[in-house]
Amino acid sequence: MDALSIDPLIASSATRTVVCCGSGGVGKTTTAAAIAVRAAESGRRVAVLTIDPARRLAQALGLEEMGNEPVAVPTVDTSAGGSLDAMMLDMKRTFDEVVLNHSTPEKAQQILANPFYQAVSSSFAGTQEYMAMERLGQLIAERVDGEPRWDLIVVDTPPSRSALDFLDAPKRLGSFLDGRFIRLLTAPAKVGGRAYLKVVSVGMGAVSGAMTKVLGAQLLTDVQTFVAALDTMFGGFRERAESTYALLQDPGTAFVVVATPERDALREASYFVDRLAEEGMPLAGLVVNRVQMTYVPSVSAARATAAAEVLDGEDDRNGWSGADSAALLRVHADLADHAARHASAIGRFTASHPDIALVQVPAAAHDVNDVDELRSIGDSLAGV
């Protein structure tokens, strides 16, 4: 197994996009931010797109808030010529911008005012993944004086039940748009004329009646109006999503899978690593966060516990009682036992994926509070 070092990855001008992915709660957002800070301070023009709404990351970067538009991060060291812009995905605003940019003003207002659209753009299953893909495509395409605005984009993928949702967004969108229910709803808008009405009026009336009973007349009307208005715009949306998906397969993209040294998180990471290989996605390696390290490996948990039992009740020695020393040994025993479990879990992963480069980030006492702590995580990612 090779060690993963983030420095060669971010130093290469060939690397244009780094995608941090994995299951929820494993530190993807912090990892993405640490990579972005390190890349910017090494001289690259970086944008980091996070999906995590927690304010603590904005505060750690020295920002009052983050939104859908990139904001310069003032706390990074730009002496090497780099820069860092940060943003947080606002899925509804991104969806609204897609509507405004890819429809006529009249049709855009019709869509934005539609009650079904307002529900879909805020809470429809998969909307966050679709919009993350859309926003990434926008950032990649952005130019200043004909040149890419950023030479590296770091992406924190959406937290979801399945880490595969981000990759599946274009395919799921295509299936949704090509589904029989959607074709049925759009058929009256696509095909007109008396001949059409004579053929399908009876059948469509029966279907509409059935759907009206299930959905209600007003909701069915809202859905039909929404789908008809989005028909041509969504085609372009799908093409852009598929184009962005193709860019993710490009050698200029590097996927970094993030996990914690727990069985479920590493199982999800293993599944994701296998899926990336199936899809031909370029994998840089695995980051294992919050690993308990042992700094006195010669003293195992068992030895520390045994020594603690011997020291219990002994007289004071140099100001320390036997009970004090025993308490410290038991703390060490707990940490050593925790470290052994983590090492075992990581060992099982490496046994099944011996060719995957891996780096471990030590567990910290608290959440990241400032850019110095992000730099410290960056050091760990670089193997420093």
Automatic annotation (TrEMBL):
<protein>
    <submittedName>
        <fullName>ATPase</fullName>
    </submittedName>
</protein>
<dbReference type="InterPro" id="IPR016300">
    <property type="entry name" value="ATPase_ArsA/GET3"/>
</dbReference>
<dbReference type="InterPro" id="IPR025723">
    <property type="entry name" value="ArsA/GET3_ATPase-like"/>
</dbReference>
<dbReference type="InterPro" id="IPR027417">
    <property type="entry name" value="P-loop_NTPase"/>
</dbReference>
<dbReference type="GO" id="GO:0016887">
    <property type="term" value="F:ATP hydrolysis activity"/>
</dbReference>
<feature type="domain" description="ArsA/GET3 Anion-transporting ATPase-like">
    <location>
        <begin position="16"/>
        <end position="291"/>
    </location>
</feature>
<dbReference type="Pfam" id="PF02374">
    <property type="entry name" value="ArsA_ATPase"/>
</dbReference>
<dbReference type="GO" id="GO:0005524">
    <property type="term" value="F:ATP binding"/>
</dbReference>
